[in-house]
Amino acid sequence: MAEKGIKPRWSLRRKLVLGVLAVLVILGLALGLGLGLTIGRNGGDDDGGDDNGGNGPTPTGSPLPTPSGRLPWTPRVNETWQIVLQNNIELDGDAKGVTPDVDVYDIDLFVTPKETIDTLHRLGKRVLCYFSGGSYEPYRPDSDRFQEGDMGSVMDGWPDEKWLKLSSDNVRKIMKGRVELAGQKGCDGVDVDNVDGYQNKNGLNLTEQDSIDFLGYLSNLTQPLNMTLGLKNAGDIIPDVLSIVHFSVNEQCVENAECDTFHAFIEAKKPVFHIEYPSDAGKTLKEDVVQRFCGDKGDAAGSDGFSTVLKKMDLDGWVEYCDQQIEVTAMNNTDPGN
């Protein structure tokens, strides 16, 4: 042991060992910093490709805000609405009103004629046009354009439908045609369904990033056509796409106790068009049933500010609102539209 006040002498062996350790520490820190910069959530490729990996926050190729990018209409929090997808609604061109008298109608892109949308506009209503962006439906007029390689597993509960590969050039080309059809018909926005394939057994190894990139692609299509874009369900990717979508269409967040996830839209001053499917829908619902789905406690926590409708699963013209008012929109059961 060295005496107090006398500096100890280090052997050459000890100096070499300490020198090697110092070099290893420096190399380790440099390597760790390099990997962190490479794989950080704000990193990654920016080439707009179809990379299926990673869950980065920014959609590949997502549009950037520009001074001329303001849309002529975007929906507001607490706007009232109705959704009818089973058939096209029955509405004469000279109609004086429509039932219910709400702000927004969400109707099927394919079965609804342009004339119906024109009439809704004349009556002061805004129109969201529904189509499935993430599933193959054999009864759609463009279904013959899908290729075998575009399709994955059969959708649970929908035996005629299959999940779609969202990064497929062919799928995107078909969806581009659908967005353009919505523009030609005068839709104010699009409600694009089944973008949450990553949450399901899809047979395509779909990831959250696939959905993020797909929504970025759709945004690049809808923005120039002056149409708003919605996010259907897919709560996991809200932080990644909230900047490029204008509303949420949510199904059963109370049933699934996940409304808090979707409240991010309200905080961003964007509406949540919220649907629940009570088992007794189609007749007057009991007050406690309505309160379960329309309150903001328990499973409904986080749903304050949502635009809630209580519907039958087939999404026909029947609807009950949170004030227990029941309305029925007339549907044309013979004319399938175009």
From TrEMBL:
<dbReference type="InterPro" id="IPR017853">
    <property type="entry name" value="GH"/>
</dbReference>
<feature type="domain" description="Glycoside-hydrolase family GH114 TIM-barrel">
    <location>
        <begin position="80"/>
        <end position="318"/>
    </location>
</feature>
<dbReference type="Pfam" id="PF03537">
    <property type="entry name" value="Glyco_hydro_114"/>
</dbReference>
<dbReference type="InterPro" id="IPR013785">
    <property type="entry name" value="Aldolase_TIM"/>
</dbReference>
<feature type="region of interest" description="Disordered">
    <location>
        <begin position="45"/>
        <end position="72"/>
    </location>
</feature>
<dbReference type="GO" id="GO:0004557">
    <property type="term" value="F:alpha-galactosidase activity"/>
</dbReference>
<protein>
    <recommendedName>
        <fullName>alpha-galactosidase</fullName>
        <ecNumber>3.2.1.22</ecNumber>
    </recommendedName>
</protein>
<dbReference type="InterPro" id="IPR004352">
    <property type="entry name" value="GH114_TIM-barrel"/>
</dbReference>
